[in-house]
Amino acid sequence: MYKVSEILSYITDIAPLHWQESYDNSGLLIGDGNALVDKVLLTIDVTEKVVDEAIENSIRLIISHHPLIFRGLKNILTDSTMGRIISKAIKNDICIAAMHTNLDNSYLGVNKVLAENIGLKDLKILRPIDSLSSSDSDFQVGSGMIGSLEDEMSEQEFLSMIKERLGVGALRHSELLNKNIKNVAICGGSGAFLINEAKRYGADAYITADVKYHEFFDADNELLIIDAGHFETEQYTKQLFADIILKKNPKFAVQLSNVKTNSVHYFV
User: Fold this and answer.
1) Number of domains in the chain
2) 142-182, pLDDT tens digit by residue?
3) Range of the domain at 74
4) Could you give the CA distance from residue 233 to residue 239 in angstroms, rounded to a whole number?
5) Contact at 8 Å (CB) between 117 and 188?
């Protein structure tokens, strides 16, 4: 048995909580950091089905990418989904933690595994964080990532590859420019705020999610913007959690949630 705080430290060693964005709510959200656990359930989102899965498998720790509690709560009532999730977790002594933008901002985090899964090399942070403490000087920290494909490909070939590898029902993208794709910028989850950085680094394409109608105009005939889905661009985070934990402690039991938490569905 291991303390919850020890298991969480395996992740915060490479993604300290002070790397999270000011609006975020990463860390232990429900439970006792000194509680003893023998396994963990890993997920992208905490839904009621995920908590039920933990209960059925006698798991007392859930680590998710997205925080269950993101904004202030005025009440916890069981006639609401949030209320039921929190109530079930507390009644069943389940600790819930989130590792969100602290992991997004880590060089070894969400964007690195996304980049590796679409075949990018020579990776570097797209928007580094400059205001780091001296203790962070040995780390690469910041938003997004840029790299290059081993071989350039046409826009149509690139779009087909991304759709297949990410398992996306459909891709939204800006106007095709009839040029080959070699340098690719990425940001898992909502990343429209990095479009100008992608252009500044000379990216041929930028993959992210949650791009609004007017933001596609920001491509400005310079690059191809691709909205590949929020869940889809962060889907590898569960396995990333598992890899980090098992590297630190091969004896600890990890379970990837079987619940599909993607809230977006496609009619094709």
Assistant:
1) 2
2) 999 999 999 999 999 999 999 999 999 999 999 999 999 99
3) 2-103
4) 13
5) no
